[in-house]
Amino acid sequence: MQTLRLMTFFLVSLLALPVAVVAEAKSTEIVVRAKSKDAKFIGTSMGGAMVRIRDAESGEILAQGLTEGSTGNTDLIMKEPHRRHQSIAEGAAAFRTTLDLSEPVFVTVEVLAPYIKKQARVAAQTQVWLVPGKHLNGEGLVVEIPGLVVDVLSPQTHRYTELSDAPFEIRANVVMMCGCPISDGGIWDGSKMEVAALVKKDGHEFATIPLSLTDTNTFVGELKPKSPGVYQVLVYAHDPRTANTGVDRVSFIVK
């Protein structure tokens, strides 16, 4: 009888214990886009933007991948007035993923763009809560990427040339971070940008050479070295209206 009472008490005690409830994981859609400052979205034409979604507490990568798609609708993004809650991302490049979440998670979203242009690549990040089943889709999370992409086309890196061949052309290609074109009087007006080459000879300041817009995306100037040496050329582009800035560097040898 005593044993029966003890067993009954034990069973009742077990039933009284709180039961751990495992929350059911819910699929949660996430869309992340990278938008060039003062321009359009960064997509396939610029190699995409690398997106990494991390658990902010543990650092674990929950998802990662490149944005894919077009730069978006120019009129909608750059010309038409925007209303509150109006999406401007129709058809624009995005990274899309689905996470199975059983509880809210605070995440860090890292964006590196444009991914294939290492000298121009910018790392930007933000943080956001994700709640199971509460999708972050539609326009999604838009991360702004400031800057300009500058590629020095001439002189070529580590080129050996004769002093008698001077003067040398400095030629640079400059585009928005989304790859959008810079032209004279265009939406992205190169005539209002400052582009110049800062030149050093054997590590010492030599000259500052303004570059002029000669064609779409193309800025040109002329370097007149006075003696042989190693010349370092840093070309910067700066838009004073937005503070967007980009840089590229080369060095070459004059014999």
Automatic annotation (TrEMBL):
Superkingdom, taxonomy of origin: Bacteria
Signal sequence interval, chain numbering: 1-25
Keywords, comma-separated and alphabetical: Signal
Protein name as catalogued: DUF4198 domain-containing protein
Lineage: Bacteria, Pseudomonadati, Pseudomonadota, Gammaproteobacteria, Cellvibrionales
